[in-house]
Amino acid sequence: MHEGSVAFVTGSSKGVGRAIALELAGRGADVAVNCRSSVSEAESVCHMIREMGHRATLVIGDTRVEEDVQRMTDEIRRVLGPVTVLVNNAVYALQKQFLEFTVDEWKSQVDYKAVGYFLTARSVIPDMLKHGGGVIVNVLSTAGERGGYGEIAYAVTNGGAMALTRGLASEFGKRGIRVNGVMTNWVENAFHADNPEDAKLLPRFALGRVTRLAEIAKTVAFLASDDASGITGAIIPVDAGFLLT
Question: Which domains, from first to last, does the chain contain?
Answer without folding.
Answer: 6-244 (3.40.50.720)
